[in-house]
């Protein structure tokens, strides 16, 4: 049922309408079209153009699709790197915390991780720039690599910003991995596995992890929202020309067409990520698959 | 912090009903539970540590203006970017303003915005969660879809849009965060209400022909206070996070306030020139405040979660 509601296009439209009614009203204000009818017409006008790939022009007379395309690719690189680092790290952290439940190591990972998550991205950025870029001179202070740089140079430029994102994402994913693992450790099937004399390694790998990582996978995808919010800030402080900085700049310059389409794109990316998580979750979890069929 | 200490709801239950023995016992249980929780809190190391940190910043927010050595808003372009010294403990920023004074007085804005936004979010979210959890059916479906629509975009992006539409101000910031966090809180409350509504005391209240608002706020609300308080402390941390982020982007607390996020935004451009002090100190201030709030939230969560 939940999945069906998410797949229905009508639901997507409603999700989009919520945030965008607001934005359309800004637009209406700019054009002094304060009444309701033109606002809706304008909205439909815009959304129908959007669906055919025509995003209109930015206030700087460049097609919006041009303004948005390169930054989307750039942001995708940054986000991907952050995810590649954080997912294994957070899962290992969460599992280690769960296996040592209640000990100092557990509290260090849980409370430390969540505190790290709660510290704003730009604070991490400042700390990392000071330590690794200025103090040790290992990395550049900006993230924008020179044009045509090799993949290793790009990685070097992207590492610090993605580490900031890692810090904000780690705690939450680790907490889910920890909760899932604790639950799986308590389960009857785990006790059975231990009692029938399987080595601990096998029990953990085949019985505990398989069950505990399911909710974690779902959470990883929903973190896309936090990640995008983080991108806005990280790209601004590292002067990286991604979608986040483009949106922030569009907001500062009141470039409404770019802002509208950019936010809608971000919304779509977020929705797709959530959808993928749902599908992945049911593919990996026979219980949900069977439960949905009832 | 003021978050714990909710003996009133338990008492209200006792007075508000023509006390059958079971209900009276229930209220007494609740009172004992509240006492136990407070005792747990007092013994929680993370709660104490968090309270000390947050308490320090609260003092700074209230009295900071009176004790700082310099006017936090007075710029002095000749003496810009002076490194930390006996005269300017944390140095001066790009406009020659005293960083120490700005860091100390900077606690005020965030400590007004974040708690007010969280209170707004908690009140809205609790009402919403009680209604959706209690009625279920159509009301729940419609409200839940609207809530999902709100959650469809990252908070920072929504904050950006609202700030562009309405112009950045403290009030805008409070209302934006309050409204955006309400759905998240409502889901927690809804989940708690879903179990509570099946319990006998709710059925009893309904059989007594109590009006629905009374059942919701007089009977169920006191019994879901635990999760709500936990949620409040957790959200407070996130509110600081979002408010600081939006201020950093220039869409939160308006300049020239000595807000920490703004200070970092004003000065991060000169960081590659080696001028670390106008950026580092406000960053550390945010970090300590957030960690303090999180420690409190951790203590509260372990004391209140059943």
Give a quick precis of the structure.
The complex is a heterodimer of chains A (294) and B (306). With 294 residues, chain A is mainly α. Chain A has helices at residues 2-7, 9-30, 36-51, 64-99, 104-118, 121-135, 151-186, 188-195, 200-222, 224-237, 243-252, 256-284, 286-293.
Description:
- The complex is a heterodimer of chains A (294) and B (306).
- Chain A has 294 residues and is mainly α.
- Chain A has 13 helices and no strands.
- The radius of gyration of chain A is 23 Å and the shape is globular.
- Mean pLDDT of chain A is 72; it is low at 1-40.
- Chain B has 306 residues and is mainly α.
- The longest helix of chain B is centred in the middle third of the chain and has 29 residues, at 107-135.
- Chains A and B meet through helix 2, helix 5, helix 6, helix 10 and helix 11 of A and helix 6, helix 7, helix 11, helix 12 and helix 13 of B.
Order of helices and strands of chain A: HHHHHHHHHHHHH
Q: Overall mean pLDDT score of chain B? A: 79
Helix- and strand-based class of chain A?
mainly alpha
Q: Measure the end-to-end span of chain B.
A: 21 Å
Give the total of beta strands of chain B: 0
Q: Cα-atom Rg of chain A, whole angstroms?
A: 23 Å
What is the string of SSEs of chain B from the N terminus onward?
A: HHHHHHHHHHHHH
What can be said about the biggest beta sheet of chain B? none
Q: Pair with the most extensive interface?
A: A-B, 49 and 48 residues
Mean pLDDT of chain A: 72
Low-confidence stretches of chain B: 1-24
Q: How would a crystallographer describe the biggest sheet of chain A? A: none
Proportion of residues in β-strands of chain B: under 5%
Total DSSP E strands of chain A: 0
How large is the radius of gyration of chain B?
23 Å
Name the helicity range of chain B. over 70%
What is the percent of helical residues of chain A? over 70%
């Amino acid at each position: 049922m939940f999945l069906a509601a998410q797949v229905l296009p009508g639901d997507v439209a409603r999700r989009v309408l919520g945030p965008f009614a607001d934005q359309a009203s800004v637009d209406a204000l700019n054009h002094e079209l304060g009444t309701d009818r033109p606002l809706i017409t304008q909205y439909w006008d815009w959304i129908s153009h959007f669906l055919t790939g025509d995003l209109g022009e930015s206030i700087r007379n460049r097609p919006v699709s041009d303004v948005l395309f390169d930054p989307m690719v750039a942001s995708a690189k940054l986000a991907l790197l952050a995810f590649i680092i954080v997912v294994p790290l957070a899962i290992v952290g969460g599992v280690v915390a769960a296996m040592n439940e209640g000990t100092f190591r557990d509290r260090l990972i849980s409370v430390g991780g969540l505190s790290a998550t709660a510290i704003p991205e730009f604070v991490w950025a400042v700390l990392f720039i000071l330590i690794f870029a200025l103090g040790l001179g290992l990395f550049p202070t900006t993230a924008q690599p020179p044009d045509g740089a090799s993949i290793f140079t790009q990685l070097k430029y992207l590492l610090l910003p993605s580490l900031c994102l890692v810090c904000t994402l780690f705690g939450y994913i680790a907490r889910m991995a920890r909760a899932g693992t604790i639950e799986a450790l308590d389960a009857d099937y785990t006790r059975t596995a231990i009692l029938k004399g399987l080595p601990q390694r096998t029990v953990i790998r085949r019985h505990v992890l398989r069950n505990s990582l399911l909710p974690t996978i779902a959470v990883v995808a929903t973190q896309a929202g936090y990640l995008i919010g983080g991108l806005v800030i990280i790209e601004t402080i590292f002067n990286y020309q991604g979608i986040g900085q483009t949106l922030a700049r569009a907001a500062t310059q009141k470039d409404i067409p770019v802002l509208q389409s950019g936010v809608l794109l971000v919304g779509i990316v977020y929705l797709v990520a959530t959808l993928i998580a749902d599908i992945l979750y049911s593919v990996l979890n026979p219980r949900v698959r069977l439960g949905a069929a009832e | 912090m003021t978050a714990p200490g909710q003996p009133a709801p338990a008492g209200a239950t006792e007075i508000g009903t023509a006390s059958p023995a079971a209900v009276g016992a229930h209220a007494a249980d609740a009172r004992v539970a509240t006492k136990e929780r407070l005792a747990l809190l007092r013994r929680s190391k993370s709660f104490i540590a968090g309270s000390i940190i947050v308490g320090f910043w609260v003092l700074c927010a209230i009295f900071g203006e009176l004790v700082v050595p310099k006017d936090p808003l007075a710029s002095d372009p000749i003496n810009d970017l002076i490194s930390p010294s006996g005269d300017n403990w944390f140095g001066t920023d790009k406009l020659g303003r005293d960083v120490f004074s700005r860091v100390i007085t900077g606690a005020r804005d965030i400590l007004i915005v974040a708690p007010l936004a969280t209170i707004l979010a908690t009140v809205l979210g609790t009402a919403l969660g009680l209604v959706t959890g209690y009625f279920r059916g159509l009301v729940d479906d419609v409200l839940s879809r609207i809530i999902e629509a709100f959650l469809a975009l990252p908070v920072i992006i929504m904050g950006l849009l609202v700030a562009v539409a309405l112009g950045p101000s403290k009030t805008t910031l409070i209302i934006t965060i309050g409204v955006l966090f309400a759905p998240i809180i409502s889901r927690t409350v809804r989940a708690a209400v879903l179990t509570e509504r099946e319990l006998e005391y709710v059925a009893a209240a309904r059989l007594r022909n109590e009006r629905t608002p009374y059942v919701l706020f007089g009977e169920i609300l006191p019994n879901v206070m635990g999760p709500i308080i936990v949620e409040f402390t957790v959200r407070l941390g996130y509110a600081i996070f979002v408010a600081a982020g939006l201020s950093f982007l220039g869409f939160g607390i308006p300049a020239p306030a000595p807000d920490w996020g703004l200070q970092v935004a004003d000065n991060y451009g000169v960081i590659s020139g080696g001028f670390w002090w106008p950026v580092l100190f406000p960053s550390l201030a945010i970090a300590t405040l957030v960690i303090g709030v999180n420690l409190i939230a951790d203590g509260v969560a372990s004391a209140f979660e059943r």
